[in-house]
Structure formats: structure tokens, C-alpha cells
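Review session, final week

We close the course with one last complete record, chosen because it touches almost every idea we covered. It is Sporulation protein, a protein from Ectobacillus funiculus with 254 residues. Go through it on your own first, then we will talk.
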Amino acid sequence: MFQRFLASVGIGAAKVDTVLQRDEWAVGEEVKGLVHIAGGAVEQNVDSIYLTLSTTYTRESDDRKVSITQDLAKIRLTDPLVIKPGEKREVPFSFTLPIETPLTFGLKKVWIRTGLDIKHSMDPSDTDYIQVLPGTLMSDVMQAVQSLGFRLRQAECEELPHRLRGSVPFAQELEFLPVSGPFYRKLDELELLVFPRSLNELEFIMEIDRKAKGLAGLFSEALDLDETRVRFTVTPSDVATLAHRLEQMIKKYC
């Protein structure tokens, strides 16, 4: 009885360890791995083994930024089972990385949490961070932007107004600086707000931030009048002419 009490607070309880096939995955890929379970000092009834894919986004509140955790997917791996003392088990899994998963660009902002759901007990868990790479279409978009002389400066997930929300309350914003090419010294920055509709359809709101020129330019910049927003959609059929299309859209507002 005393051992069961200790297990309920995590002492001598079952342990879980998830091993992914790799730590880099592209949006839309099948994430695969094994959940290793080691029984503790007493027999325990496990209602389920589950995976939760999570990230964070930024919310502005009272003139300050707050980091909010958002679950992107929860995957139940098993029906109820009994883990005997000292027992070893392996549970294979796979799931599709959702299109809403933000790209990480080397930052630890997306993770998979594995948990054992045990009633009246502290749930054992394990957390694994992953690197999220762009899918094929997003890679093509980024290459088109970079071919115009832009370099990615940062990527952030920000809360959206209710009217713009889809299945998640945020969108990822990619901020590019002009370092060469036709827009060098003409723009301060170029921002892309990404709205994935499917693996083969991406919607964007592009914000073109013109460089201030003279007093009139400085006045416009102070009032945020130097920013222009353009909404457009990209599919695989657009890729061949995408760089030219982007160049023409940006030139229109330079």
C-alpha cells in the first residue's frame, strides 16, 4: 500500500521515454518513433499513452508581450493497459506533422510531450523538441523571396484577430531584410504572414515596409503610412513565375 502511495506521487512509478527516428521533420511528413515504457515498483493501470504536439505564440496584453502555449495535435496511442512492476514495453507510433506547425529555424519552439494517463497519480511524461522544416511549396516561396536579395531575419508566431483565425489562433510571421538585389536600400523590411490552407496551397499577407526618404518619408514612417499590405495565394502551378510575380508586387509599392 505504501509503495502505491509513493507511485501516485511519482516515486517508484512507471517511466516513459520517447525516441524519435530523427529530430528534423518537414511540415506534412510522417513523424515516427518508439515510446519506451519501464514499469516501476508496483503494478499500475494506464488509461492511455498519448502524444501532444505543442508550440508557443505571442499575445500582446496591456502593452506587453506574453508567451502562450498552443497544442497543435493530441494523439492517443493505446487503449487502457496494465504495466507490471519492472516490465519493459515499446509502442511504435507515427503521425502527420500538421500544416499549422510553425517552422523553427533552429529555435526550440515545437515539442512532443509523451504522457501516461494514470488515474489518481502523477502522470509520467517525456518531452522532445523537434526542428520543423518547410514543406516543398513553402521552400519554393522562400527561395523566390531570397532570389530577390532578401535574407530571413526572424520568425515569430503572433496571435491573430478573430476574423483572421483558422484552426489555430496564431500565424507565423517571417521577417526579411533586403541585403542585395533590386530592393536594397529601397525597403526597410519585407514581412510575410503565413496562412497554410493545405500542403499545396499557401495564403500570405505581405507587408512592404518602404524606406523613409526625406521629411515626407519620415512623416509617413512615424504614422505607419510607409507600410503596405498585399494578400495573395501560392500553389505549385505558381512556382515557376513566383519570383517575377513577387518582384512586380513589391515594385508597385516601392
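Two points worth writing down before the exam:
The first strand starts at residue 15 and ends at 20.
The chain has two domains: 2-133, 136-253.
Good luck, everyone.
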